[in-house]
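Lab channel / #folding
Pinned by the channel admin:
"Please post every new chain as: sequence first, then the structure tokens as a reply. Keep commentary short and put observations after the output so the thread stays searchable."

First post following the new format, from NK:
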Amino acid sequence: MTSDDMKGILRTIPDFARPVIRMAARQGGVHQVHTRGVVWFRSVFLPTLHRLDRASLNGVRTVDLVSHAWAVAGDVHDLNGAPLAAARAYLHAARRARLAPTKSYALAELASAQSAVGYHADAVMTARRAIALGDAESARSARHVLEGGQPICQRSDRRWHVAELLARGHHWKALRTARRLRGAQGHMLRSHCLGSAGRTEELEIQMRQLEERYEVPLLSSADVFYIPRRVFEAIGWL
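Reply from TO:
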């Protein structure tokens, strides 16, 4: 798709949604959306997509562009270690997609998310649907799912439960679970919960306690999503 084609399609997107869809459609759109952080993602990005779901959109490419944005939402959840939340977004993208590359990508990523949480039979069926659409890159990803393997997420893993609760916006429930976790990882997960809740002062205290008690950890994707950059700057981590 040329730059002019993209501009033409974006003109068919309602004004309120155009900046969000433009960002998601860019090369590196997942990174741009993810680095805006949890507050923007939850208050702007997702509500915009839900509003578009209720809008009357015309044109195959227009609807497909919105579907691609839902796939980006899935990618963001995946980066944050929440494959169930990712699966819901990928399923939404796959159902709305009108063009094979977008549908194939969404299905391949949905299969990967299903496999990660142990839904192997569903993952195999989804992967086969992705492969049948003929997009080479998505097919390669889907074939990895067909090879099987152990689920990445275990039901007993509280870290996973925290990630899924945060993806759904349940920061206080997540915090109750995170309080049962010890060590630097428990501290960081509690910081995610406070960041999600917008409790910046408490978050900064939590981060300083982490720094005093443990070595400064390597930052994960979820760390930079839930913890505002200004907090990292305030405690001298950036």
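NK: The mean pLDDT is 91.
TO: also worth noting, Residues 115 and 121 are 8 Å apart (CA to CA).
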